[in-house]
Request: fold
Amino acid sequence: MIRRAGLLRDQRGATAIEYGLIAALISVACIIAFQMLGLNLATIFTTIANALR
Reply:
């Protein structure tokens, strides 16, 4: 027989989902910020590569 009281009190899965949602929201915010600021990673890496030559 499964102990339901223990399963209902177990918060580990909920905490993992919350951390996943927070990470996803931070990622979306970073992507939006980069697009709004006009930062192009390809241009940045090209500039760095040219500076190192």
The mean pLDDT is 81.
